């Protein structure tokens, strides 16, 4: 009896360790090296991180429309560590250009352009990301990054994290979400979450879904803010469906 009990206890402990290691690795992600993802932006309210964003030109950052928290919005560029922010060179006040058809994340058009108060000096710390040339293919390998929570009901982090995710076909994603009475529109992309145990969390909203070096999507929403082991795919705004709107604003340099 004793050897059998010992074997059972050993198997139980080993199983728990494996589960905890998996959860820790995926939820926390990995630190982004200082020389990579130089387009990442921290969208802040009253100088505190609220959302992610990404630089697409010398004077425009893209983020999610639901990241509009009223006045006192600013953008930080040029650092992956939010404890190392030089307000005089890294912080920019902004003018908000929210998509005119946005109502709430689940109905689409969850996109907002932020016009910076001055042009960014492009250098070895700040570079824009390219826009997509076409819609992303199903099952493509992509990456999402942010300073958001590393677990459900957690707190934001100081150092930028990243995690790799795969595109979920929209028809499969729709079927899963419709079982929870949410109908996904045609202007979204699904990636991560569900059975993959990889994805984004609170505070990552507005950040880019990067596929083949281009900003294919914008972090929009997940299921009831469940970040540890989400049972539905994460949902992103499809950048390819908003290129005309983006280019019109960035070309005219005003909303």
Automatic annotation (TrEMBL):
Residues 1-23 form the signal peptide. The keyword Secreted applies. InterPro entries: Peptidase_S1_PA, Peptidase_S1_PA_chymotrypsin, Peptidase_S1A, Trypsin_dom, TRYPSIN_HIS. It is found in: Secreted. Its main location: secreted. Residues 26-251 form the Peptidase S1 domain. GO terms for molecular function: serine-type endopeptidase activity. GO terms for cellular component: extracellular region. Keywords: Disulfide bond, Hydrolase, Protease, Secreted, Serine protease, Signal, Zymogen. One of its GO terms (biological process) is proteolysis. The keyword Membrane does not apply. Gene3D superfamilies: Trypsin-like serine proteases. Cleaves peptide substrates after methionine, leucine, and norleucine. Physiological substrates include EZR, alpha-tubulins and the apoptosis inhibitor BIRC5/Survivin. Promotes caspase activation and subsequent apoptosis of target cells. This is Granzyme M. It comes from Parambassis ranga.
């Amino acid at each position: 009896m004793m050897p059998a009990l010992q074997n059972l206890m050993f198997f139980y402990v080993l199983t728990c360790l494996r589960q905890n290691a998996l959860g820790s690795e995926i939820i926390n992600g990995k630190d982004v090296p200082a020389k990579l993802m130089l387009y990442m932006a921290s969208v802040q309210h009253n100088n505190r991180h609220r959302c992610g964003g990404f630089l697409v030109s010398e004077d425009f950052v893209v983020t999610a429309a639901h990241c509009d928290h009223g006045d006192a919005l600013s953008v930080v560029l040029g650092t992956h560590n939010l404890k190392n922010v030089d307000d005089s060179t890294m912080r920019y006040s902004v003018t908000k250009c929210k998509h005119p058809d946005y109502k709430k994340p689940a109905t689409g058009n969850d996109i907002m352009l932020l016009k910076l108060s001055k042009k960014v000096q492009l250098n070895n710390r700040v570079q824009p990301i390219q826009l997509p040339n076409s819609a992303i293919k199903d099952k493509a390998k992509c990456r999402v990054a942010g300073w958001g929570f590393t677990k459900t009901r957690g707190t934001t982090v100081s150092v930028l994290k990243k995690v790799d995710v795969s595109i979920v076909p929209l028809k499969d994603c729709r079927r899963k979400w419709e079982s929870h009475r949410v109908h996904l529109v045609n202007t979204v992309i699904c990636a991560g979450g569900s059975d993959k145990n990889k994805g984004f969390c609170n505070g990552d909203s507005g950040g880019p879904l990067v596929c083949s070096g281009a900003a294919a999507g914008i972090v929009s929403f997940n299921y009831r803010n469940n970040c540890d082991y989400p049972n539905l795919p994460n949902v992103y705004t499809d950048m390819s469906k908003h290129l005309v709107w983006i280019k019109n604003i960035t070309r005219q340099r005003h909303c």
